[in-house]
Amino acid sequence: MKFAVIGHPIKHSLSPLMHHANFKALQLDYDYEALHIDPKHFHHLRDIMHEKHIDGFNVTIPYKVDMLNVVDVVDKEAQMIGAINTVHIKEGIWYGYNTDGAGFEASISAYIGDKNIIVLGAGGASRAICYKLAQNNHVTVLNRNLERITSWPFKVEAHTYDHVHDAIIQQADIVINTTPVGMKGFDHEALIDVSQLKHSAVVCDIIYTPEKTPILHAAEEQGLTTVNGLDMFINQGALSFEIWTGEKAQRTTMKQAVREYLQRSTLC
Fold this sequence. Notes:
This protein is α/β, with parallel strands linked by helices and about 270 residues long. It is built from 10 helices and 12 strands.
């Protein structure tokens, strides 16, 4: 079987490394490649995948929303999230899924359930995470503006950063950064003051490189539990593999392969 990840750009994707480690652990003679799809060629995607005999693929920036109009069948969760990150091609029919929310939920499963959760940012990753977590938790989204959030087909509490009451931060059990703040090349501004959080709070970031973003550093200085985005990345990929094959992914092996690569890259 052949799989892929598409995006623009895509050359730095660690998905092939992660999936090949999984294939090797399961002794599967499968392939997975990163395919750069130029926006002007996106409308030829079906032909490209057919020519390459692709059985399933992951979707990253900037095509997750556009893919809704390409697949034949959209899973309910992907419809609610408004984006697709996983496509399964079965007997010529394209099925679209989104494993981002479930991938993140699995990464913090030990901490959630009837919790007060603050999510920073309102982009695609935020929407996926909020959709999953809002089913069993109270979710508050903080963003610079609220226009995007009002169009979501599910309900969350929402405030702008400069109009959020201190009590909301003080009562939060979990804070999740879904913005690029802290990523290389982006601002390192503090979106909230983590010193206001209670001692039992958990602070998460969906970024996994760098391993410790500014918000995670600040949280650790306060003695708080922190979780970076590596497990979310592994889980969303593992869930994609399980959709494509029906087999159980080797998450520990996948994580070890990515972590070792990131450690080598840090040393270079």
